[in-house]
């Protein structure tokens, strides 16, 4: 693509060099630059992309975008911009042909429930006659291909490149989890969302956002992007106080569809029945009413299902058909996933890594548990440390016994993380510490009988453990299977 064409929609401060040449690709990491590419230098938390411009040029970059003024020489073009991350997103959007405008795009944000809701929406859209792609925490799905995900919401050039691949594979729609990091770091800037979903807001990521108000304002940006002209819709959880704030602020231009148990919700659930085999409820919607039976457990999954029904209803899909799609979902990878075993022990692997998620999951399991409820969990390193004691407190309150272990310690001392979790327990007899996750799971599995339930929380679908910067293969589900035999 011609560089001057790319620059048409970009806000620039200065352009030095000839812009009539072509661009073969876009990189935000100098290590990935190929001959003929454009390199965008981003200032990050650890490094400054501007320090790698020489490397990018030596690898064949023909154009460089950065926030600082530069003399490049050697025929390369320099484009100075006010905000490099935003420029990166705008360039990627233009380079790949503004594909989000040519697809039905659903974005889901919120602290918990994004992945689960995304899978539900994918199935509803697919059974309703769409061909959806998916971008989320577990995988990127492009037509028949499924690629394990490295980030919940990838960087903008990666999103747009995958949209292109989806288009080539015949997809007409995409369901995308939108993390708060993605919004703050401009990864989804320029994406044209048809429907945006707000699941809930509870404590997480305060290492990055500092306080809940800032965290909320970042999430809210996704909804302020929607405009009325194109009949865009915001789907918002009315049972969540931050969801109500989003609705009540009245800053939204888009059509709003609320959901929840709250009787004022437009997509409203009642008569919920929960047991060990699943969850059923009656739903009232602007498109009619239906009884929904889920194979998934827990009240929180009713919320996720309501959000998915609202998105599908807005896309014109028949309610009964949507109820059927939801009923056919057997499990979401790593989300309250029962690990089948010969001994019939009830062991669940779940991705709860916040106090709210842990509360929801333990409450659900408590309702179906006929014996002791045991939990193995830890907290991630280099992430919000404020949730550690809170998670400890929730486990102390809701489980009969806790085995506190390591999650992904990353670059922190595993023992120090666990000490912060331990501060949430008042009674020494309620828990023990087994730092090695494998040993902790072994202990948990061996300690439960048939009537008991073991929950292994925090890592869900993850197939690795990150300890002192090294990434080693580790899968909670496989580890459980190994010991339950
Ligand atoms: C906090 C955060 O999101 N950080 C992102 C940020 O990293 P950073 O600011 O530390 O980058 P940096 O290492 O300082 O480097 C700055 C720039 O120099 C470039 N560089 C660096 C070295 C080099 O040799 N050459 C070079 O060009 C880097 O590619 C980068 O563009 O910019 C990088 C490149 O764009 C991202 O990869 C990185 O995500 C890291 C890996 C990350 O862990 N992010 C997590 C927290 C995240 O985004 N999580 C959310 C999910 C959260 C949720 O569940 O809600 C997600 O969407 O996955
Ligand atoms: N609607 C919900 N409300 C509260 N907790 C939920 C909800 N749905 C799922 N959970 C809990 O939160 C965990 C994470 O769920 P899920 O993976 O669907 O959310 P997510 O928002 O994608 O999380 P992440 O940001 O880490 O990718 C689940 O394993 C479950 O314990
Ligand atoms: N998307 C979340 C995932 C956390 C998963 C948990 N296993 C951990 O490592 O803390 C994050 O980056 O904070
Ligand atoms: Mg997710």
From TrEMBL:
Catalytic EC class: ligase
Post-translational changes noted in the entry: Carboxylation is probably crucial for Mg(2+) binding and, consequently, for the gamma-phosphate positioning of ATP.
Subcellular location: Cytoplasm
Keywords, in A-Z order: ATP-binding, Cell cycle, Cell division, Cell shape, Cell wall biogenesis/degradation, Cytoplasm, Ligase, Magnesium, Nucleotide-binding, Peptidoglycan synthesis
Residues in Mur ligase central domain copies: 108-311
Ranges where the Mur ligase C-terminal domain occurs: 334-460
Binding site for meso-2,6-diaminopimelate: 383, 407-410, 458, 462
Binding site for UDP-N-acetyl-alpha-D-muramoyl-L-alanyl-D-glutamate: 30, 152-153, 179, 187
GO annotation terms (biological process): cell division; cell wall organization; peptidoglycan biosynthetic process; regulation of cell shape
CC cofactor: Mg(2+)
Gene Ontology cellular-component annotations: cytoplasm
Sites where the protein binds ATP: 110-116
Pathway(s) where this gene product acts: Cell wall biogenesis; peptidoglycan biosynthesis
UniProt domain Mur ligase N-terminal catalytic: residue ranges: 23-96
Keyword Heme: no
HAMAP family to which the protein is assigned, alphabetical: MurE
NCBIfam families: murE, PRK00139.1-2, PRK00139.1-4
Protein name as annotated: UDP-N-acetylmuramoyl-L-alanyl-D-glutamate--2,6-diaminopimelate ligase
UniProt source species: Pontiella desulfatans
Gene that encodes it: murE
């Amino acid at each position: 693509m011609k560089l001057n064409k790319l620059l048409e929609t970009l806000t620039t401060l200065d352009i030095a060099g000839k812009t009539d040449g072509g661009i073969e690709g876009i990189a935000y990491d100098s290590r990935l630059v190929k001959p003929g590419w454009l390199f965008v230098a981003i200032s990050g938390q650890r490094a400054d992309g501007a320090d790698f411009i020489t490397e990018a040029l030596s690898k064949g970059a023909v154009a460089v975008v950065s926030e600082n003024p530069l003399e490049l020489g050697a025929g390369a073009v320099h484009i100075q911009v006010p905000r490099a991350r935003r420029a990166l997103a705008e360039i990627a959007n233009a380079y790949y042909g503004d594909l989000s405008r040519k697809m039905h795009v659903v974005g889901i944000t919120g602290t918990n429930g994004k992945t689960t809701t995304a899978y539900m929406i994918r199935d509803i859209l697919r059974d309703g006659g769409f061909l959806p792609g998916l971008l989320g925490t577990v995988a990127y799905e492009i037509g028949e291909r499924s690629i394990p995900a490295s980030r919940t919401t990838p960087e903008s050039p990666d999103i747009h490149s995958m949209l292109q691949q989806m288009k080539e594979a015949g997809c007409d729609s995409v369901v995308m989890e939108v993390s708060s990091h993605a919004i703050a770091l401009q990864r989804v800037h320029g994406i044209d969302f048809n429907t945006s979903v707000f699941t809930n807001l509870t404590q997480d990521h305060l290492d990055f956002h500092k306080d809940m108000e800032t965290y909320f304002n970042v999430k809210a940006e996704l909804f302020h992007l929607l405009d009325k002209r194109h009949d865009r819709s915001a789907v918002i959880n009315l049972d969540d106080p931050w969801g109500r704030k989003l609705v009540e602020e009245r800053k939204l231009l888009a059509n709003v569809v609320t959901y929840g148990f709250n009787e004022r919700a437009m997509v409203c659930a009642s008569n919920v029945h929960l047991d060990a085999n699943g969850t059923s409820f009656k739903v009232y919607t602007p498109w009619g009413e239906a009884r929904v039976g889920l194979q998934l457990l827990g009240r929180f999954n009713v919320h996720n299902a309501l959000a998915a029904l609202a998105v599908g209803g807005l896309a014109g899909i028949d309610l009964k058909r949507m109820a059927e799609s939801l009923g056919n979902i057997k499990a979401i990878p790593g989300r309250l996933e029962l690990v089948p075993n010969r001994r019939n022990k009830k062991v669940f692997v779940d991705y709860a890594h916040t106090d709210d998620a842990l509360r929801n999951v333990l409450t659900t399991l408590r309702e179906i548990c006929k014996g002791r409820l045991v939990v193995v969990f830890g907290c991630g390193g280099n992430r919000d440390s404020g949730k550690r004691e809170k998670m400890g407190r929730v486990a102390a309150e809701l489980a009969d016994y806790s085995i506190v272990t390591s999650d992904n310690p990353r670059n922190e001392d595993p023992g120090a993380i666990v000490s912060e979790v331990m501060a949430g327990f008042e009674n020494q007899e309620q828990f023990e510490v087994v730092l090695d996750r494998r040993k902790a799971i072994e202990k948990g599995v061996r300690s439960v009988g048939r009537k008991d339930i073991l929950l292994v929380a925090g890592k869900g679908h993850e197939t690795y453990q990150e300890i002192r910067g090294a990434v080693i293969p580790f899968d909670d589900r496989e580890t459980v299977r190994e010991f339950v035999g």
